[in-house]
Structures are given as structure tokens and as C-alpha cells.
Automatic annotation (TrEMBL):
This is 4-hydroxy-2-oxovalerate aldolase. It comes from the Bacteria. GO terms for biological process: L-leucine biosynthetic process. Belongs to the 4-hydroxy-2-oxovalerate aldolase family. The active site is at residue 20. NCBIfam families: 4OH_2_O_val_ald, PRK08195.1. It comes from Lacimicrobium alkaliphilum. The record marks 16 as: Transition state stabilizer. Gene3D superfamilies: 1.10.8.60, Aldolase class I. Keywords: Aromatic hydrocarbons catabolism, Lyase, Manganese, Metal-binding. Mn(2+) binds at residues 17, 199, 201. It catalyses: (S)-4-hydroxy-2-oxopentanoate = acetaldehyde + pyruvate. It is an enzyme of class 4 (lyase).
Length: 340
């Protein structure tokens, strides 16, 4: 693999995907400290919202310590060069949320759908593009369909106005060959003007390897989070990825020592538990289920005495997708009854 002089834009997820690991309780001061630390390290893009995106604060997905509006108001004025993005899942986030984010200075909207449901993104992608925002189509759980099917969905998002399309390994299930095949096909058939991105989770410890495969195959935007703070075993650890990219001669404009310090001095001390590949997060990757399901499965385990590992594997067999978190409780109850 030769990534010498390959340019890549890194995008930090610790203040959005990291919200899952923190049960959405990151404080405003922690948001500011981490965001300004990343800004100083040269991180070009930082995502800030509830873990489930704009409008995610709810009984279903968990209430955050503060509103999306409060987080964005606290962080954006403090940044010198980094741009802030916001995730939006149609059905959770609305066009009003999108306009609010734009008015507060968000420059990038990432409209996320399950990998087979790009058609529900038309309204939000269209509005974001019309407002002149950097508009991303974010296809989640991309391991569940073929490269050809993913391309069909990507073309829909591109036709709605997205200027960047993401292949998203929400479950940390993919291996490098699959990433290469899917990113390569998107790069081959989407417009040259459309950027390609990759978002990986680390449940099979493949976050860095998969990100490198994505860059080699044509992705120019790569997501990750400092110290891997994120759902499941976390996102691709950015300070590790930066070190590897340095070794490979890729261009990313991040100060390695500064991002290492943000990870070690700011993010690790605020973790509720070590973000690592433990048996639960490994099960997430092995079973191919949403990383954000882990805390729901752990709660169900505590309430009903059914192993979170067994719950996650069964969810994988059933092809459960994001938005079906309420099924975890029902499934745990059914499994508990069967064990009586």
C-alpha cells in the first residue's frame, strides 16, 4: 500500500459518537475543552450533536445533559479554524433542526439513513444543499448490502444534492477487502466532484486498517475520534491513525503530539469506562449490529438477567437496524421467559 502524498481530511466524532459512550452527558466545558484542543491540533472538521444526531434527545435515545443548540452555541465561537458538522437522521431530526444548526454556524450537515433507505433523505439533503452547506449523504450499516446496492443508494443521495457520500461501518463488521470493494465502486461510478468518505468502528480492531484501505481505494474523508471515544469498542482512534498516516507519508495537517495530548489529557480522564475491544463490543462487530445498541443491551442484561452477548447475537440474526432500539427490551424479556 502506498499512500505517500495522498491528501485526506480527518473528521472527529468524539463529541457526537462519543456521546453514546458517555450516555449523552458530556458537559459544555468538556465540549469546549476537547473541541478547542482539536482545533489547536489542526483538526479540520469536528462533529457536535447528541449521539443520535440533531433532535436525538428523547425517551427513546436518551436525554443529553444539554440541548444540541446549547452545545453548538458553546463550541462554535471558540474555534479558530475547524468547521463543525451536525448529523441528522430524517425522522429524528427535522428541517427546523437543520435550519437551527445552520444559523448557529454549522457548515456541514451529514444526513444519515440506513444503507437501503437513501430515498428518505431527499428533503434534508436538498435543503442542506440549497442553504449552501457542505452536504453529506451518510449510508449506515453498509456491510448489510452489496457494493452494487450501496452504489445505487449513493447515486440517489448524489442526485438529491450531496457533495460527499459516506460508506459507514456502523457495526465495525467490515474487513479491508470489503472496504476496498465498496469505496472503489463508489469512486468509480460517482461524479469526480463527489467526495467519498469512510466511517469505521473498532469492534474487530480494524478501524485503522479499514481507514487505510478506504483512502487507498479513493476516500478523501475519514472519520475517527480521539482515544476512540465512541459507541461499542469506539471509533477509529484518530491519534493512532494520524501516527500511521505520518509513517506512510500521507497529507493530513494534524499535529501528532497535540492530538495525542488531547486524547490522553482530556478524553481518557472523562471516560466512564475504558473504550476497548471487550467481549461485548467484539460481539457487536462479530454479529454485525449497531455499536450504539451496546448500552441498551447492557441495561437489558441488568434488568432481565439475559447475557448482553446473547441479545446482540440474536439482534444480528434478525437484521435489526437503527431505530429499533425498543426491540432490545422486548427481545430480552422473551429470552428471559424462555430461560425460566
Amino acid at each position: 500500500m502506498n499512500l505517500t502524498n495522498k491528501a485526506v481530511t480527518l473528521h472527529d466524532m468524539s463529541l457526537r459518537d462519543g456521546m453514546h459512550a458517555k450516555q449523552h452527558q458530556i458537559t459544555l466545558q468538556q465540549m469546549i475543552d476537547i473541541a478547542t484542543g482539536l482545533d489547536d491540533a489542526g483538526m479540520p472538521m469536528i462533529e457536535v450533536t447528541h449521539g443520535d444526531g440533531l433532535g436525538g434527545a428523547s425517551l427513546n435515545y436518551g436525554f443529553a445533559a444539554h440541548s444540541d443548540e446549547d452545545y453548538l452555541k458553546a463550541v462554535i465561537p471558540k474555534l479558530r479554524q475547524a468547521k463543525v458538522s451536525a448529523l441528522l437522521l430524517p425522522g429524528i431530526g427535522t428541517v427546523d433542526h437543520l435550519r437551527m444548526a445552520k444559523d448557529l454556524g454549522v457548515s456541514c450537515i451529514r444526513v444519515a439513513t440506513h444503507c437501503t433507505e437513501a430515498d428518505v433523505s431527499e428533503q434534508h439533503i436538498g435543503l442542506s444543499a440549497k442553504l449552501g452547506l457542505d452536504t453529506v449523504g451518510f449510508l449506515m450499516m453498509a456491510h448489510m448490502i452489496s457494493a452494487e446496492q450501496l452504489l445505487e443508494q449513493a447515486k440517489l443521495m448524489e442526485s438529491y444534492g450531496a457533495n460527499c457520500i459516506y460508506c459507514t461501518d456502523s457495526a465495525g463488521f467490515m474487513l479491508p477487502d470489503e472496504v476496498t470493494a465498496k469505496i472503489g465502486l463508489l469512486r468509480q461510478h460517482l461524479s469526480d466532484k463527489t467526495e467519498i468518505g469512510f466511517h469505521g468502528h473498532h469492534n474487530l480492531a480494524m478501524g485503522v486498517a479499514n481507514s487505510l484501505a478506504a483512502i487507498e481505494a479513493g476516500a478523501s474523508r475519514i472519520d475517527g475520534s480521539v482515544a476512540g471515544l465512541g459507541a461499542g469498542a469506539g471509533n477509529t482512534p484518530l491519534e493512532v491513525l494520524v501516527a500511521v498516516l505520518d509513517r506512510m507519508g500521507a497529507k493530513h495537517n494534524i499535529d501528532l503530539y497535540k492530538i495525542m495530548d488531547v486524547a490522553e489529557d482530556l478524553v481518557v480522564p472523562m471516560m466512564d469506562q475504558p473504550i476497548r475491544v471487550d467481549r461485548d463490543s467484539l460481539t457487536l462487530g462479530y454479529a454485525g449490529v449497531y455499536s450504539s445498541f451496546l448500552l441498551f443491551a447492557k441495561r437489558a442484561e441488568a434488568r432481565h438477567g439475559v447475557s448482553a452477548r446473547d441479545i446482540l447475537v440474536e439482534l444480528g440474526k434478525r437484521g435489526t437496524v437503527g431505530g429499533q432500539e425498543d426491540m432490545i427490551e422486548d427481545l430480552a424479556l422473551d429470552m428471559a421467559r424462555q430461560e425460566l
